[in-house]
Design a protein that fits this description.
The protein is α/β, with parallel strands linked by helices. 28% of the residues lie in helices and 27% in strands. The protein has a 6-stranded mixed sheet, sandwiched between helices. The two termini are 13 Å apart. Bound molecules: guanosine-5'-triphosphate and magnesium ion. Magnesium ion (MG) binds next to α1.
């Protein structure tokens, strides 16, 4: 089975761990327990590609938002196949941080899939990124709370990893 290291990046409290938990366990917790350093979660998923029973093992590296851009100075990113960079729809400052992280990931890992994710869309359902912010990468809107867009988001990045391999 093909496996891929996928980074979850983004500011503190945007919902990185909640997205991983929704994807892997189909659960949501409203308590906030900040990630210390990094948590690694593994999940095997059928990609549903036509004429191909492709299964991808996601090795999710759920990072601590406190790193900010300094994450690029750590060893955590070594060997990453792709990145999911998350912002919180209710906090504009997290969107700015998302843009910076997307740009830096593209600079350090040219050509590797990267998605910009606006999470907590259940709280502001009409929120959309400015055209400028949205032009940078594939943008998807999710809610780890309701599950909206979560499976699609992971499948989309999984298929991009598969196509590239
Ligand atoms: P750090 O590990 O500190 O970097 O944070 P994180 O990005 O992992 O955020 P986490 O998943 O811990 O979520 C932070 C808080 O936001 C928690 O209280 C979650 O319950 C809440 N939360 C996460 N996703 C959503 C969402 O889609 N909607 C709503 N309403 N709340 C969410
Ligand atoms: Mg976390």
């Amino acid at each position: 089975m093909m496996s891929a290291k996928v980074m979850l990046l983004g500011d503190i409290g945007v919902g990185k761990s909640s997205l991983a938990r929704r994807f892997v366990f189909d659960r949501f917790e409203s308590d906030y327990k900040t990630t210390i350093g990094v948590d690694v979660l593994t999940h095997d998923v059928a990609l549903g590609l036509e004429g191909d029973n492709a299964t991808l093992r996601f090795v999710l590296w759920d990072t601590d938002g406190d790193f900010g851009m300094r994450i690029f100075e750590t060893v955590y990113l070594a060997g990453a196949s792709a990145a999911i960079v998350v912002a919180d729809a209710t906090r504009p400052a997290t969107v700015v941080k998302m843009s910076g992280l997307v740009a830096k990931f593209e600079e350090c890992f040219p050509g590797r899939p990267v998605s910009a994710i606006v999470n907590k869309i259940d709280l502001t359902p009409d929120f959309r990124l400015s055209e400028e912010a949205a032009s940078q990468a594939e943008v998807l809107y999710t809610s780890a709370k309701t599950g909206q867009g979560v499976e699609e988001m992971f499948l989309s990045i999984g298929r991009a990893i598969w196509r590239r391999a």
